[in-house]
Structures are given as structure tokens and as C-alpha cells.
Amino acid sequence: MKRDYWVDYVKVFACILVVLGHFWQSMTKSWVLPTDSVYNCAQTVLYYFHVPLFFICSGYLYQKTAARKIRPILGGASGGPGGALADHFKYVRNKLIALGIPYAVFTLITWVMKAVFAGDINGENRGLIDTLLAHPTAPYWYLYALFFLFLVTPLIRRDSGALALLLIAFALKVLAVLQIGTTVPVLQYILQNEIWFVMGMLLCYMGVADVDREAESQQNKPGNWRTILCGVLLGVLFLTVSILLFVQSIPDTYLAPLLTFLACMATILIFWGVRAPNKGLDFLAKYTLPIFVMHTIFAAGIRVVLFKLGVESAAVHIPVGLVFTFGGPILAAFLMSKVKVLDALLYPGKYIGVRV
């Protein structure tokens, strides 16, 4: 299967934003850095779109890969509702393993760390069962939510199905904005994020990757600067509006989904336009999942160590913390890859043929 570089690179970009956002939060909650207007504005801007980017990429890959594994409902002797439903639940079962094992393992590690170092690590600790089943902690709630999106979202097979799915996802987002049904944790995640998951599916269904390859072969260029420019302009528009809303203290209740859409499209267009492989991004793409699931563990660990040593200076906490936040998961994943049992904690899907 042809690799879609833009998907991997968007995931890397989103992962970096998630990590930096959490790291900055930890620095302010530990009183290493102040909670000022710059911090509040940056956090507001980041939270519009960094996790939705992950859902878009996941929706794209779901539509691309699952279509080969799940038979269509109207598929003659080889298909039919029964066969399609059986295929879907087999796919979801595999996703439960691929997502559930790293979710449970690293949630447990984080929960134990919070329990043992309650006075040194940020965030309150719920009961373990409650945390695992109902109220997932950051950043693992993404894996939790993603599983349920796989569970409830059918594949797009035809134009009418694409339109129906888009309208349903839009209606769910309206309910989320109006805060209808959001008191139920699982339902809240579906209402809020189905639209971004479906957006990724639509990008795949509309043949974005095929258009990209055809344009690349015709132009014989490593990138499409018109596409990149469109992405930059959308990004500038997003930043201008979002910062203006923050500075003027204007409620963003109804504008937030639109701002998320602008930011996500800007990011996708920029990386779609680049096209050419990048060694640095390729390296990080191999470790996106380890960085995502382990960055808070390493960040909290080194922060506790520095405080125990009496180090409180931001000049030390920031560079050392960032090195451990990014480097720790990469090193841990590399070492875990040498032992199948440990590697399976990160990539159980590798052993059952499922890509997360």
C-alpha cells in the first residue's frame, strides 16, 4: 500500500503540539512558569485543533484500510448485511486490542505514578476502574474515544452514504456545541469528535491521495507551492481570528468548530503540498505513538527528580524536561522493540496485522 506522507507528517505535527501543550501546562502547574495571558492564549489556540488532527488522520486511514477488510452491505453473495456486520465487528475487535492494550498499560502507569507521587505530580487521581472505563485521563482519552468512533462509524461506499454520514456527524457536533448528551462520557467523545473522524474519511473517499500522486507525476516537482500557500493563508486567518477572540474575550462557543476546521485544513494543505519525504519527520513518524503515550510519564518523572534535587529554575527544567519528554519515549520504544512482549505493549496491532 502506497504511503501517504502527508498523513504521517500531520500526525507528527499534531503530536509535537500535544506534547508541547502538556509540557507547558506542567510547567505552570508546578510554578516553574507563570500562568500569564501568553500561556492562556497559546493553550486556547492549540486546543482548537491539535487532537482533531489525529482524528482526521485516523478517519482517513480507516476509510483507506478497512474498505479492504469489511465487505459492503450490498455485495452479492460475498457481502450482505450479515457478512458486513461480522467483518465490522472483527475489525473493531482487533482495534480493541491494538488501542486497548497501550491505553490500559500507560493509563495504569500514570495512575500509579499519581498515587505514589501525589504531592509532586499534577492532576487528581480518580479510582482506577473509573479512570479506565469512564473518565480517561489525558492524553489517553484519544485512544479511548477513537475506539468508540471505529465502533459506531460505517465505511463510506457511495456518494449518498458520504452525504448521509457527513450530515449525521454535523448534527452530532451541533448537539455537542449545545451541550446536549455531553454528560455521558462516551457519548461526549463521539458527539465532539465524529465530525473530524468523518472529515478524514471523506478526504480518502474523495481520492485526495490519488490526486496528489497524479499531480506529482505530472509536475515532476517535490511540492505544490499553491497548495502550501493556501494552507499558510488559512493558517494566518485561523491565528488572526482565534487570537482576536481571546484578546477581546469574545465567547467562541459557536465559532470553535469553524476555527478547528480552518486550522486542520491549513495544516493538511501545507503537509499535502510538501509531498517530498523528509528524514527528520520520517524519524519522528516512527515514534509518534510512543511519544504520545509516554511523554507525560517521562516529563513528570524528570520533574519530580529535579524538584527532589532542589532544582526549581526554569532555565534547567525547560531544556532538561523537553529532552526527556521527547527523547525518553523514543529511547524506551527503541529498547522495547528488542523484546516482543514489551513491543506488544506499544504495538499489539503489529502482531495481529492492525495499524493504529
Amino-to-carboxy terminus distance: 15 Å
Give, in order, the helices and strands: HHHHHHHHHHHHHH
Structural class: mainly alpha
The number of E-state strands comes to 0
Largest sheet: none
- Beta-strand proportion: under 5%
- The total of helices stands at 14
Low-confidence stretches: 211-222
General form? globular
Assembly of the depicted chains: single chain
Rg of Cα set: 21 Å
In which range does the helix fraction lie? over 70%
* Average pLDDT level: 90
Short key terms for the protein model shown above:
single chain; 356 residues; mainly alpha; 74% helix
How would you characterize this protein structure?
- The chain has helices at residues 5-29, 37-66, 80-116, 128-133, 141-152, 159-177, 185-205, 208-219, 225-247, 256-274, 279-285, 288-308, 314-336, 340-346.
- By secondary structure, it is mainly alpha-helical.
- The longest helix has 37 residues, at 80-116.
- The chain is globular.
- 35% of the residues are buried.
